[in-house]
Amino acid sequence: MREAVIVDAVRTPSGRGKPGGALSGVHPVDLHALVLRAIVDRTGVDPAALDDVVAGAVGQIGEQSGNTARWAVLAAGFPESVPAVTIDRQCGSSQQAIHFAAQGIQSGAYDLVIASGVESMSRVTIGSQTAGQDPYGPGIASRYPGGLVPQGISAELIAARWDLSREALDAFAAESHLRAASSWDDGRFEAEVVTVTTGDGRVVDRDETVRAGTSPDRLAQLPAAFEDTMWTERFPEIDWRITAGNASPLSDGASAVMLASAEAAERLGLRPRARVHSVAVAGDDPVTMLMGILPATRKVLERAGLGIDDIDAFEVNEAFAPVVLAWLAETGADAARVNVNGGATAIGHPLGASGARLMTTLIGVLEQTGGRFGLQTMCEAGGLANATIIERLD
C-alpha cells in the first residue's frame, strides 16, 4: 500500500458565526477559495496537477449548496479540469475528507489531492438544512421511541453521567481560551493562519472568538443554555451545566490540507510534514451522540499498534467541555498533551471546516514540541466519530 503524506495545511482565522462577525461579509465559496488558493501558493504546486478536491460542509443549503466545493475550486482560479466533491459527516466532515484523500492515495486512485472544509454559520445558520423537516422518518421514531435530542442535551447527559461539575467545565473552558490567547501572543498560530481581507477592506488575521480575559469566575455568571421544561421532565438527572461559555461558539471559517503520495511529493519537490499513519471511524449511541470518540480512539490506536502514552499530542474537538473531560477520564490521556494551543471552545467550531482545522493545528503542535505521533478525534451528530493518527516527518 502506498504512503499518504501531508504536504501542508492552512486555515483562516475563526470569525463569530453571527451577522456582524469578522467573516460574515464573505461568501462561503470565496472563504473556501481563499484557503485553496493559499495552499497551492504556499507549496508552489500547479493546481492543474490536483486529482481532486474533497471538501466538507455541513449546512449544504443556500450559499453552501450545489456541491459548494466545485464552486470554491473555480473561484480560486483553478483550471476547470480540477474536480471537487462535497461530503457531510457532520462536524467531522473535513476530517473525513482527509481520510478519503489519504485512502485514495493509498489505493493508487490519487497522487495529489486537497482535503478541505468550510462553514459560514453566520450566513447558513445551524440546522437550516432540516428546518421544518423530519430528517429521521418513522423507522428511527420506532427504534428510538423516546426521541433523539439536540447536541446540547447530549452534552448535559455526558456531564451528568461522568459527574462533571459546572466548576470543572468552566475551568476547562477558561484554560482553552488562555492556551489559545498565549498561542497567538507567542506566534504559534502564524504559520497555519492565512489572513482574510473582506470586501469592505477589513483585515482579519486573528481568531475573533478567543477571549484572553476569560476566567472561571466570569464563566460562572452565564446561565444554562439548554434548560427547558420539556427536557427537565424527561431527564431529571440533568443539573443543567452547559452554557455558551463552556461550549464552542458559532463560527465562520475554512481550512485546507494538501496530501500526496510519497512518490508524487518527491517528484514535485515537496517536503512532507507528516504522514497519515492510521484512520478509523466509529458509530455509537445517537442519543448520547458525542461519545463516539471513545470507540473511535480505541479503534485507531489498535490499528496503529500504539498505546495512549505513545501519542505526543492530541486534538479532541471541544464541541462541549464535558466531551473532552469524559474522554480524558476514560482514556487516561495526559491533559497537558490535549489541545495544547487551545481548542474549539476558544478557537471556534466552523462545522465543516473543523476537521481540517484541527489537523492544521495538530501538525503545528508536533513541530513546535518535537513530538512524533499525533491523534485527532471529533464527535459528530448521529453518534459518529472520526479518529486519525499522524506521524511527524523531519
TrEMBL record:
Q: Which residues form the Thiolase C-terminal domain?
A: 271-392
Q: Which InterPro entries match?
A: Thiolase, Thiolase-like, Thiolase_C, Thiolase_N
- State which residue ranges cross the membrane: none
Q: Example GO molecular function term?
A: acyltransferase activity, transferring groups other than amino-acyl groups
Positions of the catalytic residues: 91, 349, 379
Gene3D superfamilies documented for this protein = 3.40.47.10
Q: Where is the Thiolase N-terminal domain?
A: 5-262
Q: Which Pfam families match?
A: Thiolase_C, Thiolase_N
Keywords per UniProt: Acyltransferase, Transferase
**Family of the protein in this entry:** Belongs to the thiolase-like superfamily. Thiolase family.
Q: Which PANTHER family does the record match to this protein?
A: ACETYL-COA C-ACYLTRANSFERASE, BLR7806 PROTEIN
- The name on file for this protein is Thiolase family protein
Q: Which organism is it from?
A: Labedella populi
